Amino acid sequence: MTSETLPDTLAAMRPALHRYCARMMGSAFDGEDVVQDAYAKAGAALAAGAEVEEPQRWLFRIAHNAALDAIRKRRREAFDLLDEEVPGGAPAESRAAASAALSTFLAIPPGQRAVVVLADVLGHSGEEVAAILDTTLAAVKAALHRGRARLRDMAEAPVRLDPAERARLEDYAARFNAHDWDALRELLAEDVRLDLVARTRLAGAGNVGVYFTRYAENPVWRMEVGVAEGRPVVVARSTDGVARFVVLLDWQGGRIAGIRDFHYAGYVMEGLGLD
């Protein structure tokens, strides 16, 4: 793999990398941040002359290390794989891990979390997990057993939106659904920033205003207010009523200071747990 082939390789692997990073971080949104960080680190390594024989394993290791860095900064958690032999879990435990809400993974120490996600969510063998994490098969089995046990019988309390936040989002959704693009542009702060995830970034009201022009050219989405990972979001539904992507809005002084649109990152919806 070279710097020239990295974008195509990452595009193919991005959903799997995101599934891993989202569960390591306990958040689809934070997981995407880690994927972007891993992409930057991979590009820097290739530019510095790194030789890569197994791109998938190499990128997973970079993503794993990027996730650990983010975890240490956020929570200063210790990374500890217990080096002891224990039996593997039952298939039901594996299925439970694969379907668990993202935030529940935060109950597992990072080392166990990495093993559970790689094995039960992404389907890697014990040997492959050991190679990615640069540890022993015995340590992988121990971490898998303990991590699965920690995931059992966990539940989340429902989240309630702040009334003022709901009102802002409902106003945004109403303007969008009415195709009142100029009214939406009026909500933009002068220094607004747009992150059209996996596609482009823009800054400034003039540049970001074009974002609504693109939606005006293909007005097939209906927006509604929702909650994802405890955060207020705008949910985009297609004509069949299916939720396809979400948009995060940051507000300052009643104006939109930031837009994070996951239109081109549909993989984020997997495991998001919309309310």
Give your account of this protein's structure.
By secondary structure, the protein is of the alpha+beta class. It folds into two domains: 6-153, PhyR, sigma-like (SL) domain (Butyryl-CoA Dehydrogenase, subunit A, domain 3, Up-down Bundle); 163-269, Nuclear Transport Factor 2, Chain: A (Roll), CATH 3.10.450.50. Helices cover 50% and strands 16% of the residues. It contains ten helices and six strands; from the N terminus they run αααααααααββαββββ. The protein has a six-stranded mixed sheet with strand order 2-1-6-5-4-3. A hairpin with a 2-residue loop joins β5 (243-252) and β6. α2 crosses α3, α4 (91-99) packs across α5 and α6 crosses α7 (137-151). It is globular and about 60 Å long. Residues 82-90 have low confidence and may be disordered.
Show the helix and strand layout:
Blueprint: H1 6-25, H2 28-47, H3 55-75, H4 91-99, H5 110-121, H6 126-133, H7 137-151, H8 163-177, H9 181-185, E1 188-196, E2 200-203, H10 205-217, E3 222-228, E4 231-237, E5 243-252, E6 255-261
Parallel strand pairs: 1-6
Antiparallel strand pairs: 1-2, 3-4, 4-5, 5-6
Helix pairs in contact: 1-2, 1-3, 1-5, 2-3, 3-6, 4-5, 5-7, 6-7
